[in-house]
Amino acid sequence: MSKLWRSGMILTVVSFITGLGNYAFQAIIGRKLAHDGEYGLANNTIGLTGFLGLPLAVATTAITHYIARFKFHGDHARLEGLLAGCRKSLFNLTIAGSVFAILLVRPLSSYFNFPRTSLMFVALLFVLAGLWGSYVTALCQGLAWFKRLALIGLLGVGLRLAFCGIFVTKFPIAETAVLASVVMVLANLVLLFWRKDFKQFHGESVTPCNREFVQYFVVSAACGVGGYFFLQGDQLVAQRYFSLTDRDAYAAAERLAIALPMTVGPLLIVLFTHRSGSHSGHGWREQSRLLGFYTTGLITGAIGLIILRTFLLKLLGRYTPEAAAMINPLALTMVLVGVLQAFATWALASRWLKVALLYGGLGLAYWVALLCLGKTPTLLLRVMPVAAAIALTTLFSIWLTTILNSKPNGTQ
Q: Which one, of 279, 280, 370, 283, lies nearest residue 329 by Cα?
């Protein structure tokens, strides 16, 4: 078995285990936050942190690409320059982010109809903690430290469950459920155990910032925004328009459906890292197989979810006929969105910037369609699979054209 496949399998297996842990987390809060729409509020707040943390996702993607690229080409000077710049920026962003958090708490709470300012406060706290977590993620992915990344994932879900079991039980409100996610970030501290490995990057550093880097960062931004809207934009729509009862039912079904791309997502992490460093030869063939395995896992998971939807919702403690009826369109949408994400990952790692930009534009158009047309659960669930299918058809056509017009090894 190649190193690429081994890394992909390790991360996928660990992701499945952490997925079970996150399912257990949902089961706990599903039972403890049983009144006044607290369950829906907790999940929508966690979803909002993804929106607020989009700059982090963008930075993580771009930095991962260049770490992998510099390492593959043995460019240690620019690698050290990139890491040094990241460390310096983290301190500055933490300070600036704290100031913005204070200023944005009330306006964001009002716009997204959060009943308590404290919910927005813990969401912003999660985003600030995510600054450091994003750096660790980029480092591990870029340097192909996949086993360490898997360990961080396992520790993170363990911390989340421990915090949830103690504090959500005593204080059954949405805020404590969100704080359990904040505590997860502490798992990144385990990387200090390997701090001696960072010495290999010390020495003369050269800043990697140039026109090419900035251009790639901008395209990564568009790609990251599009990815968020495809995966979690519906949560913002639900929070803005749905009643408390509808939010709870939708949150339960949506959490199960979004687990599909999240569970097989580590395969794309490995794909992105390896394709960022190598576009040719045996690596290209292995990457294509990895993409096929990802798609197969996505479809198989969706079939299993549809068959077991009643059982899984009951285990979650959130079964209602309304939630069960939402599973089919949500599962179909997440398969389409997951395949979209795979093509976009390939394009971004391959530096097919026009294709990646198209993905970002399609994600924004998808969310605007949901926002304009999905003002009730029934309408939203009608629009989502249709809009996702149109986006996938469009992106795949351009992706296929690009790959057919590229060189045999997959480069342009």
A: 370
Q: CA of 117: how far to CAs of 105, 108, 112, 307, in Å?
A: 7, 9, 11, 40
C-alpha 406 chain-centroid distance = 29
pTM equals 0.73
The answer to whether the CB of 68 falls within 8 A of the CB of 142 is yes
Evaluate whether 295 touches 339 at the Cβ level (below 8 Å).
yes
Q: Residue 324: name the closest of 305, 337, 342 by CA.
A: 305
Helices (H), 73-173: 76-111, 117-142, 146-163, 169-170
Structure tokens belonging to residue 38: 């607290």
Residues 387 and 366: beta-carbon distance below 8 Å: yes
Quote the distance between the C-alpha of residue 295 and its chain's center. 17
Instruction: Spell out the residues 6+ positions from residue 171 whose beta carbon is closer than 8 angstroms to its own.
Output: none
Q: How many CB atoms lie within 10 A of CB 197?
A: 12
Residue 271: both structure tokens together: 């794909």
Return the biggest CA–CA distance within the chain.
63
Q: Is the dihedral of CA 272, 273, 274, 276 positive or negative?
A: positive
Question: Helix 117-142 to helix 244-277 angle, to the nearest 10 degrees?
Answer: 20
Each residue's pLDDT tens digit, 149-204: 888 888 988 999 999 888 888 888 888 888 888 888 888 888 878 777 766 555 55
Check if the beta carbon of residue 85 is closer than 8 Å to that of residue 273.
Answer: no
What is the rounded CA–CA span in Å between residue 11 and residue 269?
Answer: 9
